[in-house]
Amino acid sequence: MTTIDIPGYRAGTWVLDPSHSEVTFSVRHMMISKVRGTFGVKSATLIAPENPLEARVEASVDVTSIDTKDEGRDTHLRSGDFFDTENFPTMEFVSTGARSENGELFVDGDLTIRGITKPVSFELDFGGFGSDPWGNYKAGASAKTVINREDFGLTWNAALETGGVLVGKDVTISLDLQGALQQD
């Protein structure tokens, strides 16, 4: 079994701090620019054994909280044309493994959007570890992946007179996360 050394890493159960965490996305719009948005993080738990590569994570994102700074677009994204939040109010991620390749860390897992589950890999960048003024041991990390939205049933689109389509297929998902080690 491969293992890696991450300075400051501690085994235990880590719970996400939603007030210091963010899930964002970007997607090509009209083939000329990008639309960006955010989702509220509902929950995330990391079970971290002695070997970081054996860690397991489960996370849930509140899709109803989508915010692209345009209420009309957000309402459309919540509709059956896109996320269908009435029937699928959350996105879920369950890790299936972690790996180190050429000095880069990846977390592999199953992402479920709109009831469809597909494997994804997030490239992980540790921000570090430290104690806050109240004695809580915290960790920070960023992660990124690109998915094809159509793989998850998000297929709505509109053709443009100039050629191409209104919404791109590739969506970049970015995570900025902070968690706290649970005290016994």
Main sheet? 9 strands, antiparallel
CATH fold-level label: Lipocalin
Q: How far apart lie the N and C ends?
A: 28 Å
> Poorly predicted ranges (pLDDT <50, ≥5 residues)?
none
Question: Average pLDDT across residues?
Answer: 91
Large-scale geometry: elongated
- Our estimate of the beta-strand percent is over 45%
State Rg: 18 Å
Quantity of strands, as a count: 9
What's the CATH superfamily, by name? Lipid/polyisoprenoid-binding, YceI-like
Oligomer: single chain
Helix content: under 10%
The structural class is mainly beta
**Class, according to the CATH hierarchy?**
Mainly Beta
The succession of helices and strands, N to C, reads EEEEHEEEEE
Number of domains: 1
What CATH architecture label applies?
A: Beta Barrel
Please tally the helical runs, counting DSSP H or I stretches of 4 or more residues: 1
Question: What are the salient characteristics of this protein?
Answer:
single chain; 184 residues; mainly beta; Lipocalin; 9-stranded antiparallel beta sheet; 9 strands; elongated
Give the gist of this structure.
This protein is mainly beta.
Description:
- With 184 residues, this protein is mostly beta strands.
- The chain has one domain: Lipocalin.
- The chain has one helix and nine strands.
- Strands 1, 2, 3, 4, 5, 6, 7, 8 and 9 form a nine-stranded antiparallel sheet that branches.
- The radius of gyration is 18 Å and the shape is elongated.
- It starts with 11 loop residues before the first strand and ends with a strand.
- The mean pLDDT is 91.
